[in-house]
Design brief:
Helices cover 41% and strands 32% of the residues. The protein has 4 helices and 5 strands, in the order ββαβαβαβα.
Amino acid sequence: MRVHINQEPRLIVATVEGRFDVHGMDQFNQVVDLVSDELPNVIIDLSAVEFMDSSALSGLVRTLKRTMMHHGWIVLANASSAARIILELTRLDEVFGRAESVEAARTLISQTA
């Protein structure tokens, strides 16, 4: 798994590629650790995710909790079919903000800020 992280004003954009599972959680936790009062909002681009396990779901929930602590928001963008299936099966798709693209996610976050 690879995680690409970009920091913007009040926003973290993270792109996850490959298998989003227990073996890559150390890398994903860097995203969680960056969330702060200065960076309260997170967009997770899931377009290149090939597989997700319960560790990935736990990481997303931790990120959600952290953004809420800092009065921010998390939006999952462009979820691949593999990501979408697991999110729908667990009904977590109803918990997270969702968008069809990173740009649409930026718009959604700017409307909620």
